[in-house]
Amino acid sequence: MKRNYTLLSLVLVFALSTMFSLDSFAGKKKVQLSVSETDAEIYIDGKLMGKGNTEVLILSNSCVTVKIVKVGFLKEKITFCNKKNSATPPKTYYVEMKRDDAYDASVQTDIANIDIELKTTKDEKEAWKLISMIITSYFDVIEVTDRETGYLRTSWVIQTFKQNTIRTRLIVKLGDTDPLTYKVKLVSEESRAPGTSVKSDELYREWDRVLRKYGNVFDELQSRLNK
Fold it and tell me: Using CB atoms within 10 A as the burial measure, which of 103, 117, 216, 221 is most buried?
């Protein structure tokens, strides 16, 4: 008898779960999503579901979050809900992606955030004066400068974009005296959010791009130090 009750309980649980599952699917909504960029990745609740276009399924009494991503374009995020007090999801939905202004204002480079050696035949005093002059043509504020130790660091320069904040600084260190060599590092970091404080170090990470206005600083230092 006890076994019969157990089997009956299992059947009842299965029947109820199936009923609720069918009820959810019975009230489901579908949205045919398409994107202006045919190779843009479409994520639904964190899972990659396609590129360029896909069908979004929203079960009854639930919501789904769609994220659309492509390098060089701003990320798009849309939430569709299928609930009594929410707007009915459209049958079709089109997303026109917009260019990423931070991406367009920068260039990809393999020299960001690493020490680049610059050798010169000029004497130390003349080289330091030239380095300082070139750097101040790119950066308004020098935070630390010490010719005796051959160390210079600019203040952070911050620029905010629609979905990102970029901070940039340049650091010069004496590498060797014979031949006279300096190590120069262009530090480029992003927060991946607009309006981030320049002091929020924990929110920034290295960026493999450099804002265009700093793109020529190494070339200028190299060419003028070797004239």
Answer: 221
Tokens 């919501």 locate to 63
Parallel, antiparallel or unpaired: strands 29-35 and 92-95:
parallel
Contact 107, 209 (CB under 8 A): yes
Q: What is the pTM of this model?
A: 0.82
Q: Which two tokens stand for residue 197?
A: 């404080």
Give the phi and the psi of residue 16 in degrees, each rounded to 5: -65, -45
Helix (H), strand (E) at residue 101 = helix 101-104
The percent helix, strand, coil of the chain (3-state, each to 5) is 25, 40, 35
The phi, psi pair for 23, rounded to 5°, reads: -65, -40
Q: Which residues pair with 33 in a beta bridge?
A: 54, 93
The CA distance from 78 to 81, in Å, is 10
pLDDT per position as a tens digit, 146-200? 999 999 999 999 999 999 999 999 999 999 999 999 999 999 999 999 999 999 9
Instruction: Count CA atoms within 13 Å of residue 200 on its CB side.
Output: 13
All structural domains of the chain: 27-99 (2.60.40), 104-225 (3.30.530)
